[in-house]
């Protein structure tokens, strides 16, 4: 036998059920990328596992698998290569008794219609006669990082393997898409820049996960150079993450040193992305190292921002710790420095999803903080615009808002009127019953003024016992009618001030229609005041109109 170097022990395929997914194989790296089958089969092989990653320096590798059937019947089996969706081309040489008995070539650029390709997995049928040995020599040509996975099944287990798989990846992608939808709703609600950057980060993550873990191939049956360019998402993910950090932490304005560090990292990532547009294979070779640098820099920057007291940094660090740990395992896996297992082979996907969930929480928390601040500002504005006792608008707000309404009426031609109100003999109420009773009277009067006014009318307390009402869309006749309703309502009302004491109150009012073309709201209130003084001089508890 001409085989040289390491020889993996032959796999016994005589059992009743064959399901081999983890077994020793031989391999060597074809650095010249030019060896043919005859030369490769005589090459010295090294030990490896049927699921292995060899990093970026092994673009073309040869693998040797030996199977022996000591039974009395031939075994019909299937060679699965579940990571075939990532390769550029696969050549399979089937040898028995040192003679070539079968051969297949799958070029991934033409794999959509290849009968051996099934949803990203190469399925090569073969048989091992009774008492004989079959040897496979497999040439795997990848773009940048060398992944290899081989499995041997009988017919029943082959079907099970093809039906199952990728459910975990579909779950990860589904969670990411749900976050994209959720974040889209947040963007329409808030229009914040961080929502756009987070969405782009999520979309890049979805593309990378679906591409790298075979979901894209399984769902759409697409392979080769046309989809390999989507690996640029390995650059866009950290680009959008860094931009997200700049926005969410407001580094430009508050953390100048950290902002410069992030900008430097961003330049490297953008340079890698631009280089990848022309040479994606070359750009992916240093991608793992750049990813490691990105994780160190972003983690250090967020830690520095935490020490400076930013409230969101601790949440970011939690999510980013997941990203760093799982992606660190993935980087070691891609470089072939650690043995493959589920966690490190799925590390990037798991890390992205865990961090994405945390970033969603950060966005929600930030929105809550901003809403609280906005609510506080609105409350301060409300307090600045209202009278603390009656909760009516104050004089300043009335004059400002009234002037706007008068200017609007000047444009539309709408009528506007004002009513000046004053509580009759209010000083006597305070002197007789005390200021507490006076306050109760003011509160009750405020409620009556609002009750008998229209919803669109602006009711304000000008100070002491004086009030003012602005009536948009009302001429002096309608304003007089409103004033009379208020006068009668006050006259019929009884104010209970405690200890069984009841007080009856009356009001005097002056009405003025605003000449919006020639006067301001202040001029109109002065005329309404003059009419109010006429009402008081005429005996109180009445309405007078200004000329």
TrEMBL record:
Gene3D superfamilies: 2.60.40.2380, 3.30.70.270. SUPFAM superfamilies: Nucleotide cyclase. It catalyses: 2 GTP = 3',3'-c-di-GMP + 2 diphosphate. The keyword S-adenosyl-L-methionine does not apply. PROSITE patterns: GGDEF (PS50887). It holds the Pfam family 7TMR-DISMED2. The chain crosses the membrane at residues 169-189, 196-216, 228-249, 261-278, 284-303, 315-334, 346-367. This is diguanylate cyclase. It comes from Marinobacter xiaoshiensis. The lineage of its organism: Bacteria, Pseudomonadati, Pseudomonadota, Gammaproteobacteria, Pseudomonadales.
């Amino acid at each position: 036998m001409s085989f040289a170097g390491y020889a993996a022990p032959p796999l016994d395929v005589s059992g009743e059920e064959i399901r081999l997914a983890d077994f020793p194989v031989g391999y060597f790296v074809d650095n010249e990328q030019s060896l043919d089958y005859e030369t490769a089969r005589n090459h010295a092989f090294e030990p490896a596992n049927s699921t292995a990653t060899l990093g970026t320096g092994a673009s073309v590798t040869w693998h040797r698998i030996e199977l022996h059937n000591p039974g009395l019947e031939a075994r019909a089996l299937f060679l699965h290569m579940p990571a075939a969706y990532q390769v550029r081309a696969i050549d399979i040489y089937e040898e028995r008794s040192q003679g070539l008995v079968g051969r297949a070539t799958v070029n991934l650029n033409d794999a959509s219609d290849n009968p051996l390709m099934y949803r990203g997995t190469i399925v090569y049928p073969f048989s091992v006669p009774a008492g004989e040995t079959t040897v496979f020599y497999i040439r795997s040509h990848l773009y940048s990082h060398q992944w290899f996975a081989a499995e041997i099944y009988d017919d029943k287990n082959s079907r099970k393997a093809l039906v199952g798989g990728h459910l975990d990846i579909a779950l990860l992608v589904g969670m990411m898409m749900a976050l994209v939808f959720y974040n889209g709703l947040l963007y329409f609600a808030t229009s914040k820049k961080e929502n756009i950057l987070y969405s782009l980060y999520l979309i890049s993550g979805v593309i990378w996960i679906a591409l790298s873990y075979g979901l894209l191939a399984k769902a759409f049956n697409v392979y080769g150079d046309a989809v390999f360019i989507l690996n640029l998402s390995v650059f866009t993910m950290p680009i959008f993450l860094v931009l997200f950090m700049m926005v969410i932490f407001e580094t430009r304005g508050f953390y100048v040193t950290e902002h410069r560090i992030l900008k430097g990292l961003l330049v490297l990532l953008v340079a890698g992305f631009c280089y990848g547009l022309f040479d994606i294979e070359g750009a992916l070779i240093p991608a793992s190292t750049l990813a490691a640098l990105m994780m160190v820099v972003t983690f250090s920057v967020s830690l520095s921002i935490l020490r400076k007291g930013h409230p969101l940094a601790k949440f970011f660090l939690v999510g980013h710790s997941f990203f760093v740990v799982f992606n660190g395992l993935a980087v070691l896996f891609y470089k072939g420095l650690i043995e493959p297992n589920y966690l490190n082979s799925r590390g990037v996907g798991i890390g992205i999803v865990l961090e994405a969930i945390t970033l969603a929480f950060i966005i929600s928390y930030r929105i809550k903080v901003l809403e609280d601040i906005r609510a506080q500002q609105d409350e301060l504005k409300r307090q600045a615009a209202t009278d603390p006792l009656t909760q009516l608008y104050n004089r300043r707000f009335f004059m400002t808002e009234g002037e706007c309404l008068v200017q609007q009426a000047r444009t539309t031609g709408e009528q506007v009127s004002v009513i000046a109100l004053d509580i009759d003999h209010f000083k006597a109420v305070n002197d007789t019953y005390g200021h507490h009773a006076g306050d109760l009277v003011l509160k009750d009067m405020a409620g009556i003024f609002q009750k008998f006014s229209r919803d669109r009318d602006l009711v304000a307390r000008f100070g002491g016992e004086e009030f003012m009402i602005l009536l948009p869309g009302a001429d002096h006749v309608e304003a007089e009618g409103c004033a009379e309703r208020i006068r009668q309502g006050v006259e019929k009302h009884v104010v209970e001030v405690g200890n069984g004491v009841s007080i009856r109150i009356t009001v005097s009012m002056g009405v003025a229609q605003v000449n919006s073309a020639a006067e301001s709201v202040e001029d109109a209130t002065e005329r309404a005041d003059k009419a109010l003084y006429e009402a008081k001089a005429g005996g109180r508890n009445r309405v007078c109109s200004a000329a």
